[in-house]
Amino acid sequence: MSAPTPGRGPSGGWWRARLTSREGQTTTGRTLRFDVPGWPGHRPGQHLDVRLTADDGYQAVRSYSLAAPAAGETVELGVQTAPDGEVSPYLNEILPLGAEVEVKGPLGGWFVWTPEDRGPLLLVAGGCGVVPLMAMLRARRAAGATGDPCALLCSVRAPDELWYAKELADPTGTEDVRLLYTRQAPPGGDRPAHRLAPDDLEGLPASPETRCYVCGPTGFVEHATALLQSRGHPPGSIRTERFG
């Protein structure tokens, strides 16, 4: 892959981004951190485009969610390796530390939350859909915004597919973190493996002013949204982001 055009500012909206660290989350999911000189900052829930350019000029662009609130010129992405993908396997397994790619962003203004958004907060994730919701949760913790109820419901197929396992296992006292498994539950768990069900929402923030964010595969998002609406959450209070 060839290097982006030198310079601190964006060229045609694209910023230079240097890979500084790679951390495994699951067998196929990675946290990637980049240094982006001149990065203007972003809001939790936003995403960016990553562009790779081959030596022959061929380019490939994919979108990835930002996994952490703004921290100077550092951006953190969650990248799930896609079967037969051409960008995610390269980013997760091949791109050397110190190498550069191009990024465009921040992108998206609808699926965002900041600590200034007061009121109860309900985050519902399917699989790697937890990535942008983790940015919201981390921003809430960093700001000390613990006065309003907050809950994260994360549904995955099996324990080894859970992103941020250690971080979610030690939530702050003001957050209700629930981990649900659809195919294989961990030993000793009190909930058998099954699809997200109405009972899983019991005790979660349910007032009409609750801000709900749902992210995951299309089928999961549609199912979770229907469950939230059946509990009385107005459609306008539910924001969704889907993939696949």
UniProtKB/TrEMBL annotation:
<keyword id="KW-0408">Iron</keyword>
<dbReference type="InterPro" id="IPR017938">
    <property type="entry name" value="Riboflavin_synthase-like_b-brl"/>
</dbReference>
<keyword id="KW-0001">2Fe-2S</keyword>
<dbReference type="InterPro" id="IPR008333">
    <property type="entry name" value="Cbr1-like_FAD-bd_dom"/>
</dbReference>
<feature type="domain" description="FAD-binding FR-type">
    <location>
        <begin position="12"/>
        <end position="113"/>
    </location>
</feature>
<dbReference type="InterPro" id="IPR050415">
    <property type="entry name" value="MRET"/>
</dbReference>
<protein>
    <submittedName>
        <fullName>Oxidoreductase</fullName>
    </submittedName>
</protein>
<dbReference type="InterPro" id="IPR039261">
    <property type="entry name" value="FNR_nucleotide-bd"/>
</dbReference>
<dbReference type="Pfam" id="PF00175">
    <property type="entry name" value="NAD_binding_1"/>
</dbReference>
<dbReference type="GO" id="GO:0051537">
    <property type="term" value="F:2 iron, 2 sulfur cluster binding"/>
</dbReference>
<keyword id="KW-0411">Iron-sulfur</keyword>
<dbReference type="InterPro" id="IPR001433">
    <property type="entry name" value="OxRdtase_FAD/NAD-bd"/>
</dbReference>
<dbReference type="GO" id="GO:0016491">
    <property type="term" value="F:oxidoreductase activity"/>
</dbReference>
<keyword id="KW-0479">Metal-binding</keyword>
<dbReference type="InterPro" id="IPR017927">
    <property type="entry name" value="FAD-bd_FR_type"/>
</dbReference>
<dbReference type="Pfam" id="PF00970">
    <property type="entry name" value="FAD_binding_6"/>
</dbReference>
